[in-house]
Amino acid sequence: MTDGVSVRPARPGELSELRAIELAAGELFREIGMVAVADHAPPPLSVMAEYQRDGRAWVAADQDDRPVGYILVLLVDGCAHIEQVSIHPAQSRRGIGRLLIDEVDRWAAVQGLPALTLTTFRSVAWNGPYYARLGFRELSPAEFTPRLEEIRAAETAMGLDPADRICMRRDLTG
C-alpha cells in the first residue's frame, strides 16, 4: 500500500508544502462537523523551521520525492511526543501515517526514550481508534505527566473539548 513512499527528514524548502498538507487534511474535520478544528491554522513557518532544524520533522515522500505527509515531534517529559501528523487526503488509507510513526519510534529508540505519546480526539475514527490499532493505549489521568497536563490545558484554552481529548502512549518497539 505504501509503494513508492519513503520517509526522510523534512527539508527547509518544503515547509510551506507541509502547511498545505495540514490544511488539506484539516478539511476532513469539516466533513464531520468539526469546523473549528478544520479552520485552525497550521504552525507558522518559523515554528515548522524550528522542528526541522532540530531534527524533529519527517516527511513521507512519494516516488517523485514530493511530500505527501509529515510528522512533528516534541520532547515531553522524557518521551517523544507526536505533536502533529498529517497525511494529504489524496494519499490517506495507504499506511503512510504508520510509516511516519514507525520512523519516530526508531528515532526515539536511538535517543534512548522509552515511549511515544500524543494527544488526540477520542471519537474521530482516524484519531483515537487509529492510534489504538497502532499499539497506543489511552492514559488514565493519574498517568498524565506535568507537561501532558499543560498540553491538555492549552488544548482546552484553544476551545477543544477536554471530554473528547485523550492522551495516549506507545512503549517503544524499535
Quick synopsis:
With 174 residues, the protein is of the alpha+beta class. Helix content is 37%, strand content 25%.
Can you lay out the helices and strands and say which pair or pack?
Layout: E1 6-9, H1 15-31, H2 35-39, H3 45-53, E2 57-61, E3 67-76, E4 79-87, H4 96-110, E5 115-121, H5 128-133, E6 137-138, H6 146-157, E7 165-171
Parallel strand pairs: 4-5
Antiparallel strand pairs: 1-2, 2-3, 3-4, 5-7, 6-7
Report on the architecture of this protein.
It is globular, with a radius of gyration of 15 Å. The chain has a seven-stranded mixed beta sheet with strand order 1-2-3-4-5-7-6, sandwiched between helices. The protein is of the alpha+beta class. 37% of the residues lie in helices and 25% in strands. It starts with 5 loop residues before the first strand and ends with a strand. The longest helix has 17 residues.
Low-confidence stretches: none
Shape descriptor: globular
Structural class: alpha+beta
| Helix proportion range | 25-40%
| Lateral strand order in the biggest sheet | 1-2-3-4-5-7-6
SS element count, helices: 6
Largest sheet composition = 7 strands, mixed
- In terms of DSSP E residues, the strand content is 25-35%
Strand tally, please? 7
Quote the average pLDDT.
91
Radius of gyration: 15 Å
Secondary-structure element series: EHHHEEEHEHEHE
What distance separates the N and C termini?
22 Å
